[in-house]
Amino acid sequence: MGRDGRPYTIGSLPPGAAEALDRRIRRWWAAAILLNAAATGVAAGAVMLAPRGVAAWAGLLPLMSLPLLLIAPLLRRRAARPPRRVHRRRPGDFPPPDPAGD
Predict the structure, then answer these.
(1) CA proximity to 37, closest of 69, 82, 12, 11
(2) Hey, what long-range contacts does 72-76 have (CB within 8 A, 24 or more apart)?
(3) Is CB count within 10 Å lower at the N or C end of the chain?
(4) Of 9, 16, 28, nearest in space to 72 by CA
(5) What is the SS3 assignment for 72?
(6) How many other C-beta atoms can be found within 10 angstroms of the C-beta atom of residue 19?
(7) Contact partners, residue 32, CB within 8 Å, separation at least 6
(8) Measuring CA to CA, how many Å separate 100 from each of 22, 90, 94, 95?
(9) Quick check: 28 and 71 in contact, CB under 8 A?
(10) Collapsing DSSP states into helix, strand and coil, what is residue 81?
(11) Up-side HSE of residue 44: CA atoms within 13 Å toward CB?
């Protein structure tokens, strides 16, 4: 959805907006990968250095950060989806509804 409230597709974006969208998606992807890698490092360090209970809880950190890896593909899919067309009123040449229901 654009700032003016109208839906858009990748092909109908104003100049520079497609690149901004790509940069935004890449930033999300990079941040998710870095966070997942950091969580994995913390978990590995906790397994080596921390008591067993702390290491077990730290092992859940990488699993909790996995859903963040889905944000970038979801943003890409949402941007590529065609907009919905909503008509506030019917055009003048639109046929009236059939009373028989056929």
Answers:
(1) 69
(2) 72/25, 72/26, 72/28, 72/29, 72/32, 75/21, 75/24, 75/25, 75/28, 76/25
(3) C
(4) 28
(5) helix
(6) 10
(7) 65, 68, 69, 71, 72
(8) 51, 20, 17, 14
(9) yes
(10) coil
(11) 6
| Alpha carbons 64 and 9: distance in angstroms, whole number | 32
Q: Which pLDDT belongs to residue 71?
A: 85
**Angstrom distance (rounded) from CA 24 to CA 20:** 6
Q: pLDDT value at position 8?
A: 57
Which segments in the chain show pLDDT lower than 50?
none
Q: What's the pLDDT at 3?
A: 64
